[in-house]
Structure formats: structure tokens, C-alpha cells
Fold these 2 entries.
Entry 1:
Amino acid sequence: MSYLVFCTFDLKDASKQEYDNAYSDLAKIGLNKVIKSDQGGDVVIPTTSVMGTFNGNIATSVRNDIRSKVQAAFQRRGFSSEIFVVVGGDWAWGAGST
């Protein structure tokens, strides 16, 4: 089954370069700041958030796997962080701006 994973995070006392490194590490996992809409256009996820789709058997396993990968990536860089991961099965998303 395909799951949508949304991850938001905060790096404590981090520089712009450290945030850039975090986004790069997250992209390697499959969590991206810019994603394609169903109409094919690029959508930028709000700051300090990333999204991706992953296959798995149950949502809790996908959540645990992705959370562990994000934690490991941030620990390798020595980041002090807060991480919040949401996983949904029958999903839809939309973007907008004002």
C-alpha cells in the first residue's frame, strides 16, 4: 500500500546551512520540500516540512521506519531537533496561498 508521509521538524539554534543540509539528507530518504501536484506542477511545502510517498504494509511501520531514518540523519549531523511524522493511507492533499 502507498502511504503519504508528512514530516515537520525544528532544528535548535541551526544556521541556514544546517537547514540546507537537513533538507538534503531528508531528500535522500524520499522526503522533499518540493513535490509534484496531481496536475504536474511543483508545490513547495511550507518551511521546515517535507513530504513523500512510501510503500508499506501498515502505517505504524512506515511511521517508525521514516522517523528512525530522520532521527539517524539528524544525529549524524549532531542536530538537536524536534520531529513530527504523520502517515496516511487513503490520502489527498492540497496547497494554496494568500
Entry 2:
Amino acid sequence: MDMVIDFPGGSRVDAHFGPFTVPTDQPAFGYQPDAPTPFATFLASLGTCAGIYVLGFCRQRGISAEGIRIAQSLEANRMTGLVNKVKLDIQLPPTFPEKYKTAVIRAADQCAVKKHFEHPPQFEISASTTEAVPA
């Protein structure tokens, strides 16, 4: 999937792909952002990806997803500030069939975003000159 990243003003940095735009912003002293930070958007992709797999699991079995939530929390390395553990707690309503509890955890574990952490891609960053875009 190709994306175009642009800078619409202030601290905003937006990603455009297909018909979608994902806005991001960075808080600064005395400035409230208009959108989530890029890192918050990244973290949200982990939980929402797991959610897609949980939802698919429920739909395949005719189980209502009503009342299901995923609580996501992080543990960070105090020295580096980097995340060293992401915890996902699938909160199931009392009506969720007990026999599927382990299977729904396995479904969430198949999240494609998580799988990319297990086999991370290589990054190639370059810079090129483009024609000036008229205002």
C-alpha cells in the first residue's frame, strides 16, 4: 500500500492512502493537538487489529460482539522509554460462550500488525527532489 505523507500546517503530519486520510499532530508547550500523535496512532493499530480478528472470530461463529472490549496497556523500559510489552485484555461479557475463550485469544494473537513485530521489515529511507507544487 502506497501512502503520501504531507504537512498541512502547524505540527500536523497526515498520511493519505486510497480515499482515506489519517491525521496526526504533536503536542507542544501551550498547544493542544487536533489529532492523535503518530505514536498513539501506531499503538491504536495494535489494539484495533486484534479487534478485527476478534470480531471476525465472533462473526464466523454467529456470536454477538456486543459487550466485548479490548483493554490495551503498555509496559515501558524506564531507561529508554521504549515499549517492551503490550498487554491486550479481551474483556468478554458473561454471555460469551466459555468454550470459545481460549480460541478468541488465539484469534487476537493472529493480528497482522503484531505478526510484523515478530518479523520486522527493513527500512529504506531516501530523499529526492520534486517539482515545486503551485500554491
